[in-house]
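Thread: M28 family peptidase, structure

OP (GT): Posting the sequence first so everyone is looking at the same thing. Length is 343 residues per the record. Can we get the structure tokens written out before standup tomorrow? I want them in the notebook alongside the other entries.
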Amino acid sequence: MYRYLTVILSFLVILSCASQKRAKEGEVVEIILGHGRKAEMNNVLQNNARPVKGEMFTDSTHIKQLVYYLSSDEMKGRETGSLEIDYAAEFLEKLFVQNELRPYFSGYRDTLLNSKTTACNIVGFLPGQDPELRKEYILIGAHYDHIGLVNVINGDSIANGANDNASGTATVLELSRYFGKGKTNKRSLIFALFSAEEKGLLGSRHLAQRLKAEGVNLYLMLNFEMTGVPMKTEDYLMYITGYAKSNLAEIANSLVSDEPIGYLPDEDKFNVFERSDNFPFYGNFKIPSHTFCTFDFSNYPHYHRATDEPEELDYKHMSGLINKMIPIIEGLTNSPGQTVKLK
């Protein structure tokens, strides 16, 4: 296993996961950070604070740093309810603060009410810049938990979860950095990092039900899952689950110069649409809700194994995908009308 973090256990303060009420717009919420800040966490945060020069917003070096941190051995597979997933949650909160996201509730953590062990989603948002369109929300999400320890392979039992799903988490973090710093969004954006996906989509189910109960006017849900390696079987960049359920792929492809989003037949075969965090939002809101993915069932043999290591990922591919998604999401959040619809 790749040893990347130095975790200082003796001084870490575990942050509360207490369920919280919605923060008032403009309210400043201070997070009390744990003592004994880890050197590598600070390195990532320092790099995250620097703007990326050139035409492309993000680069492979920064993406690699995010993934290596989240999928290090010290995280022990980020299993829901573990001490280590709390380290990950603390890290994600710090990045949301740095990326200038507001807490959606009174803090970034929202406790799951449907989990037997303590589990928290990390939820931030950016209010829209248009006085009318800001009443509509687009949710951008990924799960940050994994499965912890698994069967030993070559003396290694830690399922690091680099592709599943540190890759999707890093994608959402970078998108939050772009929109948080630029504030180009006319519609409001919710950024949600789910826990307990591996326990049965518990984090996304909890948040979908809570937002529905609050009457949130949700327009789209865009989820990112296993985006760490390019596909072998197709010539497009990524696919969406539930391709035929809406016109999202058609609209998204029209917003960029090429057509990066395609249809993967195996996605239908394995019913991935109902097995990812997009599905609870589809079920509760009856809106276009899709997962963006590059796992084609033949390009990554490390799924749910101790070999799902950060060095197995293609960071140039990941940065290219994120840079491609930025104009797509800008187009979706800034269009005068709701162009994406269910079929």
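GT: Both are above now. Quick notes for whoever picks this up: Confidence is low (pLDDT under 50) at residues 1-16, 18-37. Residues 126 and 321 are 22 Å apart (CA to CA).
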